[in-house]
Amino acid sequence: PTSYEMRQLEQQNARLRDTLVRMRDLAAHEKHEMLKLTRDLEAKKAENADLTKTNEKLIARTTELENQVTDLHEQVDAALGAEEMVEQLGQQKLTLEDRQKELEETIADLEALQEINDQLQEDSRELEMDLREEVDLAHAATREALRQKEAILESLADRELTIVKFRELVHKLQEQNQDLRIQLEKESSNKSSVAQVLPEMLDFKKMFAESKAHARAIDLELRRMEVQQSQQHVQYLAAFMPDSFMNRGGDNDAVLVLLLFPRLLWKCEVLLSQLKDKFPAVTTAITPQVLTQGHAVQQYTARCYLAMHLHSLQAILRQFHDGLNSCSPETLLKVGSSYPDMAQQERALDGYIDLHKRDQLDENVNSDSLEKCVNYFVTMHPLLLLASGETRVHQGHLVSDLGKALQAACDSIHTDTATIQALIKSGPEPTDMQLLCQHLSTVMEVASQHLKQIRR
């Protein structure tokens, strides 16, 4: 090619290069614009989606508001028609206010009547307590009268027997007297007849005592026979029981423990009755002369002290008795397993009964064994019965028995303070000991009054 063609080709190449550069720049620019448009499109799509959701929410909200508007229209329509109802309700409110005032007046009257009723019930309860106390005293007097009646009937029977024997003796003496007269008429000696009559007169009381003792011996023999029959009956029944029945902690111990507590209560009652008869209350004023003349004051104090422990023992024994009558068989068997230890405590009461039989129960008797017996049952009662949750404390029996125990303690302290006051020489001014004794005496009297009200 020629130079012209070469120059022309170079110019074309230069123009092509420029065109290629411009095309490259234009392609890059278009690519950039395409990316930008793509991003804008995606943003618009997202915005469109948000607007669609917002539109749906607004449509739902519009529907809800339309429903609310409809409800409000209905409520407005109902409110427009409720004016008459408001007037009626206002009239009813006034009527109810009048009725409320009437009811408040009625309530005030009823409260006044309730106060009167409570007062009447309180008076009736006090009257009932007084009547019950009188009934208890009447029952006690009746029992005492029956006991005296039995003693009188027994005495009458003994006297009738004595009269019969006396009549026989009188008849015999009359016959002997007639014989003596005949012998006197015959001038014979009467020494032998007199010697025969006098021993019979002297032995009359011995004959009567022997007859009475013979009757009692027969009665005791009959009772002994009944006891032996009962024991033999129990042995026969036990022979048919399984071996587990007689095991320790078995049903046999449960039965024995059921019999133990009524027996212990009965023995306590016997001791209390015998102590009351043997050591009567001191009715006269306690003076140095009374203290030096005998031991009645000391014996009465000892009686009150023992009575306090016996009533305390009765209180816990009665709780055992009530609890065993209402507990489950499992709890009864649990208590029955402690029967051997409980039976050991019975020996304390038996010891005091034996002392009374031998006439050795006096003011010098030791009460440690009785206190240990009380402490034992007081300790075992929560462990054996209350811990099971099946039984509760019988409040009535507990208050009654402990009230008697506290009354006996008050009587003992009151007697001791009176004794100390009698032994202290009185001066122009009372000593501290005298003031203390007077204070204790007053406190015991007040406590006795409160205990009497509690027993009612």
Automatic annotation (TrEMBL):
Descriptive protein name: Dynein associated protein domain-containing protein
Places the protein is found: Cytoplasm
GO cellular component annotations of the record: axon; cytoplasm; kinetochore; microtubule associated complex; spindle pole
Pfam family, one: Dynactin
PANTHER family recorded: DYNACTIN 1-RELATED MICROTUBULE-BINDING (PTHR18916), DYNACTIN SUBUNIT 1 (PTHR18916:SF91)
Primary location: cytoplasm
Species of provenance: Homalodisca liturata
UniProt keyword list: Coiled coil, Cytoplasm
Domain Dynein associated protein, chain residue ranges per copy: 173-456
GO aspect biological process, one term: establishment of mitotic spindle orientation
